[in-house]
Amino acid sequence: MASRGRRPEHGGPPELFYDETEARKYVRNSRMIDIQTRMAGRALELLYLPENKPCYLLDIGCGTGLSGSYLSDEGHYWVGLDISPAMLGKYVLSGTRVDYPDGCGEATGIVSFSDCLFSNVDEAVDREIEGDLLLGDMGQGIPFKPGTFDGCISISAVQWLCNANKKSENPAKRLYCFFASLFSVLVRGSRAVLQLYPENSEQLELITTQATKAGFSGGMVVDYPNSAKAKKFYLCLFSGPSTFIPEGLSENQDEVEPRESVFTNERFPLRMSRRGMVRKSRAWVLEKKERHRRQGREVRPDTQYTGRKRKPRF
């Protein structure tokens, strides 16, 4: 891992940071496995999928498949996308299918043991991985047909898009490309839950702004906000009409009745909720302030004077 006080994304592109040494930690370090599995469980919980119904899910930044293994254990089918060949190499050694886009190392298809990226086969852990895998950069879009997936999770991956490793890379454009393609591949009415580690409020605003621009609604769920170590950020995005935003976990947490996602083929324009509102009216101002709160911006509290027109002079 990176040295204390230094974020991993500051050390270079993810495909170089997550090398064979780092990949080995994700399959041998029991603490990392436990943390990754618990975050995947929380992300799946926030998806509010229909009970007793297997769903087809997308795992962004799947790595060595810890999150995917949890999804399989819960009875779901999944596809993983990751940019690091070293992380996906563990799957290659266990015989799982890895799709390489044309011109990216291997031809699309199943990679044999003789073509794998590792010379030391002993580093692989014999785990049964049931998902399909794709080597690719999420900042260049997600290459699937519209409406393919019933939901999406991502653990500790999205913040990598906020850093430019080349002069030609624009974080805002890469984020928008990612969110726009993610919005397309999700079934309308489904959700995406992205666990991330924002560096600061400006980075968080950049991420939420591009997600909203791509068509998503939703907001940020913060678990254990008063804890320095247990605090976790989950960006909950809705690909259909706006719905409730789940409450974050705390030390004294009461159980909340879960509400399932409702999938639909109908289209809900982004501005439908604002139809009939008069511009600059109180309802219009309140709706705009609430939208900014969901994006993580600082908004002044609502008062009896909110949206009230001022006289031209005192």
Q: Which oligomeric state applies?
A: single chain
Query: What amount of the residues lies in strands?
Result: 15-25%
Radius of gyration: 21 Å
Characterize the overall form.
globular
CATH fold description of one domain:
Rossmann fold
Provide the helix percentage.
25-40%
Pfam families: Methyltransf_11, WBS_methylT
Family: Belongs to the class I-like SAM-binding methyltransferase superfamily. BUD23/WBSCR22 family.
GO biological process, one term: rRNA (guanine-N7)-methylation
GO molecular function, one term: rRNA (guanine) methyltransferase activity
Give a description of the structure:
The chain is an alpha/beta fold and 314 residues long. It has a domain at 12-96 and 117-241: Vaccinia Virus protein VP39 (Rossmann fold), CATH 3.40.50. It is 28% helix and 16% strand. The protein is built from 8 helices and 8 strands. It has an 8-stranded mixed β-sheet, sandwiched between helices. α3 packs across α4 (66-73) and α6 crosses α7. It starts with 13 loop residues before the first helix and ends in a 20-residue tail after the last helix. Mean pLDDT is 79; it is low at 92-97 and 100-127.
